[in-house]
Amino acid sequence: MTFMEKIRAAWRSNNSLVCVGLDPDLNKLPGCVQHLPRPIFEFNRAVIDATADLVCAYKPQAAYYAGQNADEQLRLTIDYIHENYPDIPVILDVKRGDIGPTATMYAKEAFDRYQADAVTVNPYLGMDSLQPFIEHRERGVIVLCRTSNPSSGELQELVCDHKTIFEHVAILARDKWNVNNNILLVIGATFPDELAKIRKLCPDMPFLVPGVGAQGGDVKKVIENGATADGIGLIINSSRGIIYADNTENFAAAAAAATDELRHTINQYRKNHKS
Amino acid sequence: MTFMEKIRAAWRSNNSLVCVGLDPDLNKLPGCVQHLPRPIFEFNRAVIDATADLVCAYKPQAAYYAGQNADEQLRLTIDYIHENYPDIPVILDVKRGDIGPTATMYAKEAFDRYQADAVTVNPYLGMDSLQPFIEHRERGVIVLCRTSNPSSGELQELVCDHKTIFEHVAILARDKWNVNNNILLVIGATFPDELAKIRKLCPDMPFLVPGVGAQGGDVKKVIENGATADGIGLIINSSRGIIYADNTENFAAAAAAATDELRHTINQYRKNHKS
Lengths: 275, 275
Known about the structure:
The structure is a homodimer. Chain A is built from 13 helices and ten strands. Chain A is an alpha/beta fold. The first copy, chain A, has one domain: TIM Barrel, CATH 3.20.20. In chain A, the strands form two sheets. Chain A has an eight-stranded parallel sheet with strand order 2-1-10-9-8-5-4-3. In chain A, strands 6-7 form a two-stranded antiparallel ribbon.
């Protein structure tokens, strides 16, 4: 099953466009997991078990594992999802971007070492830096287009031939990079007008949308401007708003409640949608 | 000592602008190290011992360690350089680019976990994605500007307000991001004309120049177009051309010979340079 098939199936079976970002900062984990031998993995496992019927994907952010010397706990987390919830795809958020031979090694990291179903990548180096990911036809390759952070406009909003750089990325993704039909785009929820523009350029391409929750993106606008004609097409990520919903031993139930609330909020804005 | 001071001192003390890229692919290592328990580290150690008086920096490429499950051997390699050759700075080539809180974790990875003196970063997300690196004043932050790979022009050559995207990056780096005087730029040796343009924009900023050797960049043009007025200002990286100079038990001596040859070739083109 390809990533594209897997995400479409998960959207429908869990009736959810919510992706939970697994970005565990050791300093913010509840006291009850802090003393465990593998606190990050145990925290993730509890969040996953509590939310697996409410999400369309999980997205571990590699930096939290790399920065906290927790590569093994990242592997355990992804293995745990595959073994226990094989229908939920895992997006490894790494935002890699490097020359061909190096990108080949990064593809090995994401797809062989960590067995991710999809990976995020940076478009700044162009096609040959994406090729080693793209050629894994069954995996998803999610290209940064318009990111959710405050400074994203410094380069992304520059205008060339009446189109912004992020529009150029969307067009390259659509016309040149999507040879294996496994490309998606990252569009931040904090820029809903841009989301509408890019949806017009790429009517059917799935988008990964970070920036609701802690970053303040407006869910209603995200759905209205970003969903495909059939009311899906979005993987809406929330990390901090879900995993830190509660800081006591009740954290997993609180994460589930926050996930379900976001799912419900999203679903009420989806066109022709039956709850 | 800051990275900038360290690299300037190493340029002079070793009379060298050569940076050796430590990008060890297990499949390409000589048979004599393949059977060792930590083959990548042992290979690196031999190359380092043979070349430490001929280089201005080492640049391990993180992908080769991440993709081959060799994080520990990366740490050992960097520790080995710091302990035995404390005057040679280590550039960790990771090309990170992510939103603020995530970039903070990546800065922890590069500077705390691996103790790199400098790190490469991707500019696509703008200032707030670079800030967590920049605020480590004593470390170097090396921003991708014009990369050496064939597709680099897809975005980098787009023209906005009569300037290419890579020129915009150079100007942002010079005027906005360099608040702590610790920014450098990556300019591929495969684009010597662009190197000249960017040197004009940033007369004093050090550049990391990959792409000589296996990628075919012309050393003479790199020096003529890229050196600062005092004949330095460049960190010229070669990886495959040096570390795979020989595939027998003679690999370290061959790496030293290739390094010295590149150093000599570079030095003969440096202005006012005494060998």
